[in-house]
Amino acid sequence: MANKQADEPVLSGHITIDGLEGRYARVELPDGTLEDWALASLPTGVKEGDVLSVHVEGGDLDIEIDHVETRRRRTRAQAELTALNGDAPDGEITL
């Protein structure tokens, strides 16, 4: 059985900012679970809906806003909402 090397990534992927509350951000992990993380531990200027690229290697944590993935997901969500609104009788879905 091979041992893990110290510099092998422990975690690498995307998390999504689900909400901001005071000094905390509710983040959605890749498996769909939610956790509260200190806002101070995240990149300056994060907003709800931002996608963050997270990489842990050798004990070092690197988190940055993935602007390309954030834009891609927002565009896809807007397209889905527009399609849903197109099927509504008055052009908009009312909740």
From TrEMBL:
This is DUF3006 domain-containing protein. InterPro entries: DUF3006.
